[in-house]
Design a protein that fits this description.
The chain has helices at residues 24-34, 48-60, 75-87, 112-140, 152-155, 161-181, 206-215, 224-235; strands spanning 15-18, 39-44, 65-69, 94-97, 143-148, 186-191, 246-247. It is an alpha/beta fold and 255 residues long. The protein starts with 14 loop residues before the first strand and ends in an 8-residue tail after the last strand. The mean pLDDT is 94.
Amino acid sequence: MKPMGEAMKPFGEMTVLVTGASRGIGASIAERFASVGINIVIHYMNSHEAANEVARRCMASGAKVLTVSADLKDKEQILRMKEKLQAHGMEPDILVNNAGISHYGLLSDISEEEWDELMSVNLKGLFLCCQAFMGRMVSERFGRIINVSSVWGLSGASCEVLYSTSKGGVNAFTKALAKELAPSGVTVNAVAPGAVDTSMLNHLNSEDIRLLEEEIPAGRLAHPDEISSLVYFLALPESGYITGQIISPNGGWIT
């Protein structure tokens, strides 16, 4: 039997599943792994052409790529996605739970339907994906689960109570699952970015962006590549002693 936490195959031969990988941080994560030739599974829900464009960029780096569509709120769709990955010999050694949605508005204006939708995507989807894919990691005695959270899951944000609550849940989930899986050689960490230059900030105008940048000691928004590089580092075999951590690349905004 191989030692716990020691990979049975070279890093470049592993498979990474990135949820919500058709744009933004998710696309950047997929491309970062593809740059070293790792097998890439690009998950998306509705953005078929955008996912295919990310796939083309990943394949240009020489990576084997599979695109899969699934509603992460639906366990049956996740299980069908798992079956497809198994059929292609691409069950993940590395799971990056990136898919998520945001909400901006006063708590008093949030409907029960909005609450249920956001929690289902940001928390239930995370739970279902981990449940579906961690079993093989445990049996292999090696695996990496990396959850994309948010700085607001650490500090909370006015008018983003719903989103902050969901990401706080991601952080708690990460810490608890890390303890559960550590004896099996599987690490679980979260990356909690600050403000990143992606479409998630499209609700802000140029003046809002300028004011936001003034609040950040680094004086600017993060580029998606700065987030994906951290995700990549946490996935490396030599990062096996890092688990249960919430790491927040935020330019000194929240310390």
